[in-house]
């Protein structure tokens, strides 16, 4: 009973147009496909920005996955592919913010906040001890 | 000294907000100031040439418009493109994204054709090469083949009059 329900749901899912549009053409070489999948997780979807292109069902994300696969097949490195995309969409396309001139503040802000907190605690204690 | 922590926190929040907001500011597209990236697309039957390539965008101003027959915002934008075309100032080249030639032909017949040629990007490769996030988007290209303005979203008559046309007149010698 459980299996028949599972297969019924699977058939319904496969007949749904959304599942067709989500189907990608995978790379023949499994190591290249695994590299591509790893790369998809590092690229932010430009349609639904909270998701990586690996999770996204948007058409643009699907096109990006295919473009990345093509570039891997052409022999481009991961860094070259990330550079290609960030030159076009800005650094925000990378899920992990790089440590560069305009983003250093994002990386250092927690440390600065911590130092400020310590400074405030020390100052308060010094004042109360007088 | 008493207000120093509040001043520092306010300053940090402002800088963080600015850094996070920066890529979304209109007119600050990473594509602006760059040459048109390399791409080649087959054209819709009836266009002037068989292919559109990035090398075609030289020696005069061009407006490159990304659109699709399935896109409702493109339908809303279309009168603005027809308005620009009537002015006869620059050729408008279209790139139809994820569209079929049949649907495109009937859409053009229904809404009018402001384009000198239309390229068909069925895979989205050229669209991503141009740094496009969605349809419609437009690029104003200088005679040197440089993108001087990237408009995200539908063009309006107001945008054409206040941004596109002044950019052309100020850049011209």
Summary tags:
heterodimer, A: 130 residues, mainly alpha, B: 173 residues, alpha/beta, two-stranded antiparallel ribbon, 5 helices, 7 strands, 38% helix, elongated
Helix percentage range of chain A? 55-70%
State which percent range the strand residues of chain B make up: 15-25%
Report low-confidence residues of chain A grouped into runs of 5 or more.
Answer: 17-21
Q: Roughly how many Å is the radius of gyration of chain B? A: 19 Å
Question: If you average the pLDDT of chain A, what whole number results?
Answer: 83
Spatial gap, N to C terminus of chain B: 55 Å
Give the strand line-up of the largest sheet of chain B. 5-4-3-6-7
Strand content of chain A: under 5%
Number of helices of chain B: 5
Describe the structure.
The complex is a heterodimer of chains A (130) and B (173). Chain A has 130 residues and is mainly alpha-helical. Helices cover 64% and strands 0% of the residues of chain A. Chain A contains 6 helices and no strands. Chain A starts with a helix and ends with a helix. Chain B has 173 residues and is α/β, with parallel strands linked by helices. In chain B, 38% of the residues lie in helices and 20% in strands. Chain B has 5 helices and 7 strands, in the order αβββαβαβαββα. Chain B has helices at residues 4-21, 72-87, 101-111, 125-129, 157-171, and strands at residues 40-42, 51-53, 62-67, 92-97, 117-121, 137-141, 147-152. In chain B, strands 5-4-3-6-7 form a 5-stranded mixed β-sheet. Chain B has a two-stranded antiparallel ribbon with strand order 1-2. In chain B, strand 3 (62-67), helix 2 and strand 4 (92-97) form a beta-alpha-beta unit. Chain B is elongated and about 75 Å long. The mean pLDDT of chain B is 89. Chains A and B meet through helix 4, helix 5 and helix 6 of A and helix 1 and helix 4 of B.
